[in-house]
Amino acid sequence: MIAEPVILKVLRNPQSAAVLAPADWDLLLRQARAARLLGRLALLMREHGVAHSLPQQINMHLEGALVVAARHRVAVEWEIGQIKKALDSAGLPLILLKGAAYVAADLAAARGRSFSDVDILVPKARINQAEAALMMHGWGGSHHNAYDQRYYREWMHELPPMQHGKRLTVIDVHHAILPETAASKPDSAKLLAAARALPERPGVMVLQPVDMVIHSACHLFHEEELDKGLRDLTDLDALLRGFSAEPDFWQRLVRRANELDLGRVLFYALRYASRLLHTPVPEEAIHAAAAAAPARPLLAVMDALYCRALMAPHASCSDWLSGPARRTLFVRAHWLRMPPGLLARHLAHKAAVAMKGEE
Amino acid sequence: MNISALPPAELRRRLRSDGLYFRTGAFTTCLRTRLEPVASSFSLLYNDYPLGDGPYADFHVELAPPRNWRRWIRPQIAFLSDGNAPFKPLPRDQAFPMFEWGLNWCVSSQAHHYLMIHAAVIEKNGAAAILPAPPGSGKSTLCAVLIQHGWRLLSDELTLIRRSDSRLIPLPRPVSLKNASIEVMKRYAPNAVFSPSVHDTIKGTVAQMKAPATSVARADEPAHPGLIVFPRYEAGAPLALTPVPRTRAFMRVADNAFNYAQLGSAGFDALAGVVRHSDCYDFRYSVIDEAIQAFDRLSMQAGRS
Question: Which residues of B touch A25 (CB under 8 A)?
């Protein structure tokens, strides 16, 4: 197993960065950059009063990351406004998911974060309306071949990603948080019914806190490529820390996860967040979530896989099993997405396309 | 201590083992490679640069054969930035130009504490001239000529603007020349040092001209903006210097920026600080000596209007 990466130590205890030697900083900046956590690291260093004591050579990277992160946030704010206009025109509510939701609700999980797209949730019955409204406001579809259209529209839980013609920003329109073909079937109606309006942003909604955590966990532990895995785990860490003061938060969290058929992913989220980032999760919550844990031998395998794949994707955080661990979880994510027959068909199609060199 | 102080064997030992740490302006790079042509071109062009302290580096770069069957047939070379390959591998003889391009990429994709413009920047009499231009406009050739005539080289590719005060931060590295301008410069500056020419690259034939030692020695000295000149080489054309309104120049420079959009309002402010203090011109030339005189006149007047 690998020595504990410096980025984990600093994420757990930002103050500890004050005494790092230049060689440790060299590694820390590289790990943070590889994990897309440079902006978050920069903010932590500023908030904990470490930045000002750093050599300029190191601080300049953090300063640059802060400017880029601030710009990302402005851009997401702008997109939220534009998407709201589009959906308003069709009388649809705007329900934001993931990063954009953290920004709109001004949560700690948004800070220093970068964004590649905006995710929204729309009732399934109205998804065509949402698509048309977005098209009228400048977003266009992607993945135009017949197979991909069918893949998204029949089997997945979202439209093919839509890109804005001028700004080139991407929006993912979801009607559920897992594919239609997945074994777990969280009821989207329940999420929609519990979504919360944001008092300071009329007309913009986000999932209720427990659902936000569960969705974040669901996304991370169904993810195929985990190069942003550590970033997503820090999102979970920030969400859990931020919401833990809510009344009965932990009991409601576990109960809700079970109700949504997502007890297992919540168990993984609590386990690895507390293990890798020392997120303060009460013992009782871990114990309650463990009812959905896999059997011991499987859990040992999952520990070996996730404790590797959730590291920063950097040579200094990897051992000889890191590559196989990432590949195994890639296969597992596909396995969870589709039943075996459909998966075989999907992979056969992708292989044929790859051989023909169409993509 | 400069790289020239390392005996050739020690330089190669460092390149092969933990990497050679060296400083170009504000950045420390750690370079690793086992390729002799890279080692020899590197020691030829970089011997005036200070060694870095290690074990801290802003960029960790490596030139190594990609791990595929091409190792044996028409061998290739990959540029790795901290273990990742941002470009497709190139034929092995292009390794040194690839190092130069790769290091430019490291700066332009990571140094977001600066506003970065794709432009040459040189300085004389306390006024820097920024030369943004598309490839083929003769920007690098003009830059190469002027630094043989008393202008200080800040960079032939990357203009770095410090956001706090809109000063220009030097990054003096070898000047990249291509095709006909290589022979032009070899005739024009017979005492300058050039890397061996490499043929059939994506940019044609390329070679690097060593940066003047005086420019390298002043790499820690930022420059005040004074001029923005959009050069265009046009065979046989008479010299023409046409003022460009600052607002227009602003937009044209922003179009040549690597990270203007990524910096948002911070980028706007940094660029405004530069344009506010600069005289801006379109510059058409065909005769090198006329161009040198014109630039010297401009440097005397810069910032007075």
Answer: 56
Range of the domain at A242: 6-356
In a domain, A94, yes or no: yes
What interhelical angle do A263-277 and A296-309 show, nearest 10?
Answer: 50
Task: Answer whether residue A1 is part of any domain.
Answer: no
CATH of the domain at A246: 3.30.460.40
Q: Which residues of A149-162 are buried (b: 16+ CB within 10 A; e: fewer)?
A: eebbeeebbbbbbb
Q: What is the pLDDT of residues B84-133, one digit of tens each?
A: 999 999 999 999 999 999 999 999 999 999 999 999 999 999 999 999 97
Q: What is the ipTM of this complex?
A: 0.91
**Domain coordinates in residue numbering, chain B:** 3-110, 115-301
**Which chain B residues are Cβ-neighbours of A57 within 8 angstroms?**
26, 28, 56, 58
The answer to whether the Cβ–Cβ distance between A71 and B263 falls below 8 Å is yes
The answer to whether B30 and B103 are in contact (CB under 8 A) is: no
Q: Do A70 and B264 count as a contact with CB atoms less than 8 A apart?
A: yes
Rg (CA), chain A: 21
Q: Least CB-CB distance to B111: which of A64, A74, A75?
A: A64
Domain annotation covers residue A17: yes
Cβ-Cβ contacts under 8 Å, A60 against chain B: 26, 111, 113
The model's pTM is 0.91
| pLDDT 10s digits, B194-234 | 999 999 998 899 999 999 999 999 999 999 999 999 999 99
Q: Are A121 and A190 in contact (CB under 8 A)?
A: no
- The total domain count for chain A is 1
